[in-house]
# Entry
Amino acid sequence: MTARILVVDDVPANVRLLEVRLLAEYFEVLTATSGPEAIEICEHDKVDVVLLDVMMPDMDGFEVCRILKGDPATEHIPVIMITALDQVSDRVRGLEAGADDFLTKPVNDLQLMTRVRSLVRLKTLTDELRLRAATTRDIGIEELLGSRHPNDDQIPKVLLIDEKEESARSIVQMLAGGADLDVAADPHAAVFQAAEGAYECVIVTTEFETFDPLRLCSQLRSIDRTRSLPIILIAGEGEDARIIRSLELGVNDYLVRPVDAHELLARLRTQVRRKRYNDHLRTSVTETIEMAVTDALTGLHNRRYLDSHLKTLFDRAVARRRPLSVMMTDLDRFKSINDTFGHDGGDDVLREFAARLRKNVRGIDLACRFGGEEFVVVMPDTDAAIAKMVAERIRAEIERTPFTVGADGRAVNVTISIGVSSLRHGPDRIEDLMKRADVALYEAKSNGRNRVVARAA
Ligand SMILES: [Mg+2]
# Structure
């Protein structure tokens, strides 16, 4: 895993020290000796993780962190603060400034690498989501996220998994008011509870008599629904090996007993904030993809989706030597509907037609608005005879019941013409199949409309 790490410290010797160690692990390293310089680099270069000294003249690390986290262009870059003293108050202050993690000077090698690697991994995921969200919508990421930012004030729903009543009780007290907390004592049931509930973070303690808490963490990581759920481990002193192993397994953060309530709350907030940010990105990506393949007016799939999905259905039919038919349909004299009732009236007809079409095809059929008043239905496992029957049923259903148009609900008679084609195994390519449906539709039109023409071969 290669990544670009920015090391920020006002003492050049300290910068050099971290730089050498990171270079030895094949990270790319950028350096800065002041806050403003660090911010400048984050704004203009690709930075994956910032290692930030807290004590710096003029602008200290807290301030730098606050500025980075307050700017949509840099807020997703993970920041590890480096403090001189292992002071809980410093850690809490840093987490409140938005820091993602902490290291204490002198920096322990193993901790440095585990923390950096774990944050680089998370950053990679966030980058991927940001890229997909931005490119699919073809706008800047700041614009996309700026309009609907996740709500950071809402109290997070958290699951605590702890076998020992006394230990659980003290954590419940610490999080009172800061989290909507459920407690699970049985580790087996807890995995299911984590998957079923809408939790935003899971806290696991190492206080188990007979059960390995790391197994629990690895189970949570292996289930789809909990894969991206943040996990905070609460460990005892002297459990370093276990902590390192847990971070390797994908645990997001840890605290060592005795736990400070402020630090626990601040770390929880950091995890939840990051999860909400990534969930928000993921939702944007999904919505964007849906938008990209759906026709906004009718809710049917659009032509772009047809182009990509038809190939899948076609290849599958060919490989399994199964029948496949295509129905191409066009609303008759649609121009006169538009002329009489305006474009809104025309839209009403298109919407109602799409709804009736959807009702008359199966779930496995692919129904799309091909463009204008033209629609295509791809029917897997359907031979020419059945396809023609289905087409005839739809044609009759459209003719039988008048459409309702406009605010005053005027009834309008609508008819359609349909061309049907079916796959010929051997010579057919997708273009041939589509071409025959198109020719059949043309024939239906020129033979007087309101009819079905099938061209099997
Ligand atoms: Mg310093």
